[in-house]
Amino acid sequence: MTRSVPMLDLAHQHRAVETLVAEGFARVMAASSYILGPEVDAFEREFAAFCGVPHVVGVGNGTDAIELALRAAGVGRGDSVVIPANTFVATAEAVVRAGASVVLADCGDDYLLDVDDLRMRLNPRVRAVVAVHLYGQTADVDGIRAVAGPGVVVVEDAAQSQGAKYRGRRSGSLGDVAGTSFYPGKNLGAYGDAGAVSTGSAEIAERVRALRNHGGLHKYEHLEVGTNSRLDSLQAVVLSAKLSLLDGWNAERRRLAHRYTARLEELPGVATPIVRPGNEPVWHQYVVRVPERDRVLAALTEAGIGAGIHYPTPVHLLPAFAPLDNPRGSFPVAEAAADHILSLPIYPGLADSDQDYVIETLATALRPSGVLR
Ligand SMILES: *Cc1c(COP(=O)(O)O)cnc(C)c1O
């Protein structure tokens, strides 16, 4: 009898919204209206209220959301944009796609952009900083703003942080503009690709509305070269249904995270996540640092546990970003993290008994007697 604990259980989420989704899909099909439309308008309003911002614009995916957020904020050719070295590659791609140059900065021991390191990377060409709320914990947006100064746009990469709070404010409302992703595995996930831009600025929102739809707000109006990155009605139905349950799901992730921390901080060699004061993470990932990470990961995999590494290679060491010319050693904290981090299963629907199995398997793998030499 082999036991298995997946990395994520999307079927559990689907069961909770099945009826709402079926009714919504029937509505969309009856109206034969598949792109944008009333379902998208409704979701944009609901997600804006959730984030505490006046404007949300639904787009095709999270990478486009960040690119269009940058472009709409006036960032482009000739500009530099600082992002953390430890992020999903999409953050860097969005900067390049916007026409700007990537400048990397190191992270701190909480895996979030290190404000002191950011200070050293600033130069007159830096027009924006992307604050990546990695693993569901918000970056220090106020600190970033203070260091970067008033001329620099603060863009949030909120792909992993729907519902997270920073000093009482929600992810997506903390910077000048934010891009988020509703890739199926995110805390708020669609049934395909989807994303959104949120902002307090009517001007930025209006420009994203045009950019996502071939550069215009009306048919055959093309004010600038935009793209096709519209949210579709079926995804909006799923997102509205799941949004109504998101706070509960995030509370469940929080409960599981506290359970992990209580047990794992007693294990020698394990570093549990550091949460900055004022932060309420939503635990998109629960990431520990362990010695002999690859061996420990192999032991978990062998035991049927869906653990992972987010991310195994920092941006500057990816072949695609070799032209940045940041050799190994450029971002020591991010590089050391990449060698030792391990993401454990965390999701609404993870049974306590399955979580206990993960904890016990990890404890055994870490015990010297459990090591095969
Ligand atoms: C998922 C993700 C993105 C990109 O979102 P897509 O919808 O996959 O394009 C960007 N940044 C981070 C940190 C992500 O986790």
Which features characterize this protein?
373 residues; alpha/beta; Aspartate Aminotransferase, domain 2; Aspartate Aminotransferase, domain 1; 2 domains; 7-stranded mixed β-sheet; 3-stranded antiparallel β-sheet; 14% strand; globular; binds pyridoxal-5'-phosphate
Description:
- The chain has 373 residues and is an alpha/beta fold.
- The chain folds into two domains: 10-241, Type I PLP-dependent aspartate aminotransferase-like (Major domain) (Aspartate Aminotransferase, domain 2), CATH 3.40.640.10; 245-369, Aspartate Aminotransferase, domain 1 (Alpha-Beta Complex), CATH 3.90.1150.10.
- The protein has helices at residues 10-31, 38-51, 62-72, 89-97, 115-121, 141-148, 202-211, 233-264, 293-302, 332-340, 352-366, and strands spanning 55-59, 80-84, 101-105, 126-132, 153-157, 165-166, 169-170, 177-181, 195-199, 279-280, 286-289, 341-344.
- It has a seven-stranded mixed beta sheet with strand order 1-9-8-5-4-2-3, sandwiched between helices. Strands 7-6-10 form a three-stranded antiparallel beta sheet, with no helix packed on it.
- Strand 6 (165-166) and strand 7 form a beta hairpin.
- Helix 3 (62-72) crosses helix 4.
- The radius of gyration is 21 Å and the shape is globular.
- Pyridoxal-5'-phosphate binds at residues 61-63, 87-88, 90-91, 132, 157, 159-160, 181, 183, 193, 195.
